[in-house]
C-alpha cells in the first residue's frame, strides 16, 4: 500500500491508500449507488475518463472475469472506494480488481470516507477532480485540476467509438434473423448487443461519425442509438445523422446518450445535471403503461421535458417516462415518425430487468413499419 491523494476543484481533499496503477488521473468525480457490478461499471464506455466513487463500501470481493466486461477495456480514469478486497473469492474470477486497474492504467484510491465524498457531491455537484500517487501536495494538485477539461462541451463519443464497422449476428438457435439493425456506437455496451441479438436482430455496429447516407444505404429495418460519455450537445455529427434517419422514417430506438441525441434532433434542449443518476435502483414512472420500473442509470446530462416540441421538425414529441426521485425526463416518443428512447439502461448490466420489454417494443416497431 502507498499513499494517494484525491482533490476536487473546490479544494476539498481526501488522503487514502493507492491501488491499481500509479500516476495521476483527471476527470469528473461522480458516485454510483450499486451494491454490486463494479466490473460492468469499470468497463462501461459511458464512464470514460470519469473518477467513479462506489457508495457500497466493499469492492473487489468477487474478482474480475472477462465474460462480465461491457467493453474491451477499463474505461474509468480512476476508481474510488472505501475498501478494496485484499483477496477475491469466486469460482469465475480470473484476476483481481487491483490487477485489472493496473493493466489499463487506471488509478485507484481506497481507505477514504466515501460517504462524506458522496454527500459533498450531492450538495456541491459533480466537479473536476484528480487522484494521484505522484502529486501529494493538495494546492499543487488542485491547481492542475482547475486547468483540466470538464464535461460540458466535451464530445466523448468520438473517443470511445469503434474505429470501423463490425457485425454482431443474431443469436444462434433462435431461428433466422428477423431484423437488420444498424447501431450507432457512441460508447455501446456489450449487453445491448447481446439483447438485440437475442431478439433476432442481425446488428451492424458503425462508428459515431458515420453519415446517415451510409447507414440508410444498408437498408436497415431499424437504427439503434447507443449510450456514451460526454455532453450530448457536442455530438453534432450524431445529431445531424439522426435528423436524416428520422426524415427517412426508419424505426429508431435510443438509450442514454442516444436518448439525449434523439431529443436534440427532435427539437428539445439538454442540460447538465447537478450530480446525475448513476446506480441500479432508480424508480421510473412509465406514463404510457402506468407502471413503476426499477432501473439502471449512468448519466450526468438530461433532456429538458419542458422543451419537448408539440410541433417540432418531426412533429409532436411526448414524455413517456419520468424519474420518481427528482422528476427528470427518462423517456420520449415521436408521434409522427417511428422513434422512441429512454434515458436509463434497459439492458441493465448490472441492474434489474424491469425494462427489457423495450427491446421487444423496438422489434414491434420494426415489424409494424415493415407491414405498413
Structure, described:
- With 372 residues, this protein is of the alpha/beta class.
- It folds into 2 domains: 2-146, Carbamoyl-phosphate synthase small subunit, N-terminal domain (Glucose Oxidase, domain 1, 3-Layer(bba) Sandwich), CATH 3.50.30; 157-370, Class I glutamine amidotransferase (GATase) domain (Rossmann fold, 3-Layer(aba) Sandwich).
- Helices cover 23% and strands 31% of the residues.
- The protein is built from 10 helices and 19 strands.
- It has helices at residues 38-43, 97-103, 114-124, 138-146, 157-160, 190-198, 212-217, 236-247, 257-265, 357-370, and strands at 2-8, 13-20, 24-32, 51-54, 58-59, 78-80, 83-84, 107-110, 127-132, 166-168, 179-185, 201-207, 222-225, 252-255, 270-286, 291-303, 317-323, 329-334, 339-342.
- The strands form 3 sheets. The protein has a 10-stranded mixed sheet, with helices on both faces.
- Helix 8 crosses helix 9.
- The model has no long low-confidence stretch (mean pLDDT 96).
How is the secondary structure organized here?
Layout: E1 2-8, E2 13-20, E3 24-32, H1 38-43, E4 51-54, E5 58-59, E6 78-80, E7 83-84, H2 97-103, E8 107-110, H3 114-124, E9 127-132, H4 138-146, H5 157-160, E10 166-168, E11 179-185, H6 190-198, E12 201-207, H7 212-217, E13 222-225, H8 236-247, E14 252-255, H9 257-265, E15 270-286, E16 291-303, E17 317-323, E18 329-334, E19 339-342, H10 357-370
Parallel strand pairs: 3-4, 4-6, 5-7, 6-8, 11-12, 11-13, 13-14, 14-19
Antiparallel strand pairs: 1-2, 1-9, 2-8, 3-9, 10-12, 15-16, 15-17, 17-18, 18-19
Helix pairs in contact: 8-9
Amino acid at each position: 500500500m502507498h499513499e494517494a491523494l484525491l482533490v476536487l476543484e473546490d479544494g476539498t481533499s481526501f488522503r487514502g491508500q493507492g491501488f491499481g496503477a500509479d500516476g495521476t488521473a483527471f476527470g469528473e468525480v461522480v458516485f454510483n449507488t450499486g451494491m454490486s457490478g463494479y466490473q460492468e461499471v469499470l468497463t462501461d464506455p459511458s464512464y470514460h475518463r470519469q473518477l467513479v466513487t462506489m457508495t457500497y463500501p466493499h469492492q473487489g470481493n468477487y474478482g474480475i472475469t472477462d465474460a462480465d466486461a461491457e467493453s474491451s477495456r477499463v474505461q474509468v480514469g480512476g476508481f474510488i472506494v472505501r475498501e478494496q478486497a485484499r483477496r477475491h473469492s469466486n469460482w469465475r474470477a480470473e484476476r483481481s480488481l487491483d490487477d485489472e486497474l493496473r493493466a489499463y492504467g487506471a488509478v485507484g484510491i481506497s481507505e477514504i470516507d466515501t460517504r462524506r465524498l458522496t454527500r459533498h457531491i450531492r450538495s456541491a455537484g459533480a466537479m473536476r477532480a484528480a487522484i494521484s500517487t505522484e502529486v501529494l501536495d493538495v494546492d499543487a494538485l488542485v491547481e492542475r485540476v482547475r486547468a483540466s477539461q470538464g464535461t460540458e462541451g466535451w464530445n466523448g463519443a468520438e473517443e470511445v467509438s469503434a474505429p470501423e464497422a463490425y457485425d454482431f449476428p443474431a443469436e444462434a438457435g433462435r431461428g433466422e434473423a428477423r431484423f437488420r439493425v444498424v447501431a450507432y456506437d457512441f460508447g455501446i455496451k456489450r449487453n445491448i448487443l447481446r439483447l438485440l441479438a437475442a431478439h433476432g436482430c442481425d446488428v451492424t455496429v458503425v462508428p459515431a461519425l458515420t453519415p446517415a447516407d451510409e447507414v440508410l444505404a444498408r437498408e436497415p429495418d431499424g437504427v439503434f442509438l447507443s449510450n456514451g460519455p460526454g455532453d450530448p450537445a457536442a455530438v453534432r455529427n450524431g445529431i445531424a445523422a439522426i435528423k436524416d434517419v428520422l426524415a427517412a422514417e426508419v424505426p429508431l430506438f435510443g438509450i442514454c446518450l442516444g436518448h439525449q441525441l434523439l431529443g436534440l434532433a427532435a427539437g428539445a434542449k439538454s442540460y447538465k445535471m447537478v450530480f446525475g443518476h448513476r446506480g441500479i435502483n432508480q424508480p421510473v414512472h412509465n406514463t404510457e403503461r402506468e407502471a413503476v420500473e426499477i432501473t439502471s442509470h449512468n448519466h450526468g446530462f438530461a433532456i429538458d421535458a419542458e422543451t419537448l416540441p408539440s410541433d417540432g421538425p418531426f412533429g409532436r414529441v411526448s414524455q413517456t417516462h419520468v424519474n420518481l426521485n427528482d422528476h427528470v425526463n427518462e423517456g420520449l416518443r415521436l408521434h409522427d415518425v417511428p422513434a422512441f428512447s429512454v434515458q436509463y439502461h434497459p439492458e441493465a448490466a448490472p441492474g434489474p430487468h424491469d425494462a427489457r420489454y423495450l427491446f421487444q417494443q423496438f422489434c414491434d416497431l420494426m415489424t409494424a413499419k415493415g407491414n405498413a
